[in-house]
Design goal:
Elements: E1 9-18, E2 26-36, E3 41-45, H1 52-60, E4 67-72, E5 75-76, E6 84-87, H2 100-104, H3 106-110, H4 115-128, H5 144-157, E7 162-166, H6 174-191, E8 194-198, H7 202-208, E9 211-215, E10 222-227, H8 237-241, H9 244-257
Parallel strand pairs: 3-8, 3-9, 6-7, 7-8
Antiparallel strand pairs: 1-2, 1-4, 4-5, 9-10
Helix pairs in contact: 4-5, 7-9
This protein binds adenosine-5'-triphosphate (ATP) and magnesium ion.
Length: 262
């Protein structure tokens, strides 16, 4: 049964400017207000360099914002935490000296989850993403798609309230990408977790999300907020992609964004 999640994610005037010694400051993200309800699946789209990864890092607690604050329920985000699972734009965030299972166990170890419970959770998440038979392999022995799945398993293992995904399928071939999209839809339905997905693909956004937030070019700011609501959205992805209503919906959204992003 789907667990009821209660924590809304609130961005309150969150903005960021990168400052490096000897260089002009770069305003990546303009002050952004955004409320994401518990259990929503939100896609963030916008041109390259508009601050999407910056925003995700801030929500993950990995980068303090230059201004504004992030709230998860009543608690202000001040650093990384178990309630937020992150999948980065590159799979290089896996630790090369640990096995696949060792990587998935990482968050649970930090949270001092007892060994037996840990092993159970790791096995369950590896099975979910189809990596059970490579649990004891080294990370570098995996393909790119398998490494992305290992990252997703690691993020899910701690049973997060919010899953933060930064173009998790961007570097994958179409076949693997479509398989993982389907898995992600299933995971979201099963767990009821809030998802924040950065993607370049309008089609991916419409396929997966319940809401699409559109950002302007840098400094990024919200210029569109679209509810994704067409009649057959629970059909398998392969059916949806060919569905005229889905195709028309994606085309309208793409036109409203006014970009050529596929
Ligand atoms: N560590 C950093 N130091 C200085 N500038 C940075 C740093 N990280 C990002 N930037 C700049 O901030 C802006 C936003 O970067 P960010 O990575 O958030 O964009 P993005 O929307 O994720 O782009 P993409 O779609 O290409 O991944 C860019 O102009 C980038 O060059
Ligand atoms: Mg990025």
């Amino acid at each position: 049964m789907t667990e009821q999640r209660v924590a809304d994610l609130v961005l309150d005037g969150v903005g960021h400017t990168y400052r490096s010694a000897g260089q002009a400051p770069v305003e990546a993200l303009a002050a952004t207000d955004l409320t994401i309800r518990a259990g929503e699946f939100v896609a963030l789209v916008g041109p390259s360099g508009c601050g999407k990864s910056t925003l995700l890092e801030i929500v993950a607690g990995l980068r303090p914002p230059a201004h504004g604050r992030v709230l998860l329920g009543d608690a202000q985000v001040v650093g990384p935490g178990r309630r937020r699972g992150v999948v980065f734009q590159q799979s290089s965030s896996l630790l090369p000296w640990r096995t696949v299972a060792g990587n998935v166990a990482l968050g649970l170890e930090l949270a001092r989850v007892p060994r037996a419970r840990r092993a159970e959770r790791v096995a369950a998440e590896l099975a979910r993403v189809g990596l059970a038979d490579v649990a004891d392999r080294a990370v570098y022995e995996l393909s790119g798609g398998m490494q992305q799945r290992a990252q997703i398993a690691r993020a899910l293992a701690a049973d997060p309230d919010v899953l933060l995904l930064d173009e998790p399928f961007g570097a994958l071939d179409t076949f693997t990408r479509e398989r993982l999209q389907e898995e992600l839809r299933g995971i979201w339905r099963e767990t009821g977790t809030t998802v924040l997905l950065v993607t370049h693909s309008v089609e991916e956004a419409v396929l997966l999300a319940t809401r699409v937030i559109v950002f302007s070019p840098r400094p990024g700011t919200v210029v569109g907020d679209h509810r994704i609501d067409f009649t057959r959205r629970d059909e398998p992805a392969a059916v949806l992609r060919a569905d005229p209503e889905f195709v028309a919906f994606a085309a309208r959204l793409r036109a409203s964004i006014g970009t050529t992003h596929a």
